[in-house]
Each structure stands twice: as structure tokens, then as C-alpha cells.
Design goal:
single chain, 181 residues, mainly alpha, 60% helix, 0% strand, globular
């Protein structure tokens, strides 16, 4: 039972980390300039495999950091949930990377996931979660007008976001700024 409780906590935590990191580190260069610059490349050429995801070293560092963040309270409070939290974080990370790759290279994902993420590319100040928009809903950044049913065929294409200057302007807020609201 503790493993399942930890797994649930780990999924919620993973979703929060994805949201927070994407919103405030990748769209606010003052918090983490390197991530914001790499993310701007992704927005300028979303289907370019070199820019779709971060490096394996980045993901290992994120995993270790987050497991260690939970290890301390787990040990001090005798929660015994760390294995569930760790399994969930790793699962969410791997699924998130795979979904993101599939969205941009045209492989199958549920239409709602594709629409949610591609909406972020059309409106970079919305939809910060990649595929499971829990914190987009909770924090009001969910673009409610962009749904799978009204996904334009051009947006559904893996080549839809090939490099164009206006895409780059959208990715940085239209005025050269990476900031999000």
C-alpha cells in the first residue's frame, strides 16, 4: 500500500516538476539560461530531433535530484514511500520523453495529447505540461479553446512547425522575450 501511495505522490510530483521547470526555467531565461536557450531552439524548429528533448545527462540529474529530495523526508518521517515515488518519477519521465518525441515525429499518440502540446507551440504562454495537463488546469494556463477535435491538419503534421521566423517570434512571446505570464 505504501508503494501505491508513493507512486501516486510521485506522479503528482513529476507532473508539477514538468510544469514548473517548463514554465519558469525554459520560458524565463533568468532562472536557467541554458535550458531557456535550448528550449527556444525547440520552439523555432520543433520537429528537429536535435532539439526535441534535453540530453540524457540532464534527465539523470533531474531524476537523482528529485529522488534525493524525497529521500530525506521519507527517512526522517519513516514514510517508506521512496521506492513508489522513485518508480513513478522514472515512469513519468520516460513516458513524457516518449510522448514528446512521438508528438513531433508524427507517430501515434492520443489526439488530445498532440493537440494539447502543439497548442503550446502555437501559444507558448499556455499548456506547459507535455501531455497530462494537471497543473495547467490547476494554475489556469490550459488553453481551453484548442481541442483535439479542432486540431487543424497542418498542426497535426510532424513537419507543421518547421523553422520559420514567425514561429521563433511566437516561441519567445512575439517581442523577443522568453517570459511567460
Amino acid at each position: 500500500m505504501r508503494f501505491l501511495a508513493g507512486f501516486f505522490v510521485g506522479l503528482v510530483w513529476s507532473n508539477w516538476i514538468e510544469y514548473a521547470y517548463h514554465r519558469w526555467a525554459m520560458h524565463w531565461p533568468s532562472l536557467y539560461q541554458a535550458a531557456a536557450m535550448r528550449h527556444a531552439l525547440h520552439h523555432s524548429a520543433p520537429s528537429n530531433p536535435q532539439h526535441i528533448t534535453m540530453t540524457i545527462g540532464f534527465w539523470i540529474a533531474i531524476l537523482i535530484t528529485n529522488v534525493l529530495l524525497f529521500a530525506v523526508p521519507d527517512q526522517l518521517l519513516h514514510l517508506r514511500m521512496l521506492s513508489g515515488v522513485s518508480a513513478a518519477f522514472l515512469t513519468y519521465m520516460v513516458v513524457g520523453i516518449e510522448v514528446h518525441l512521438r508528438i513531433h515525429d508524427g507517430r501515434w499518440v492520443p489526439d488530445a495529447w498532440r493537440a494539447h502540446h502543439l497548442s503550446h507551440h502555437a501559444r507558448p504562454l499556455k499548456n506547459f505540461n507535455i501531455f497530462l495537463p494537471v497543473f495547467d488546469w490547476l494554475l489556469g494556463s490550459k488553453n481551453k479553446s484548442f481541442r483535439a477535435g479542432n486540431l487543424h491538419p497542418k498542426l497535426a503534421s510532424p513537419k507543421a512547425f518547421s523553422y520559420r521566423a514567425k514561429d521563433r517570434e511566437l516561441a519567445v512571446g512575439g517581442n523577443g522575450s522568453f517570459r511567460s505570464g
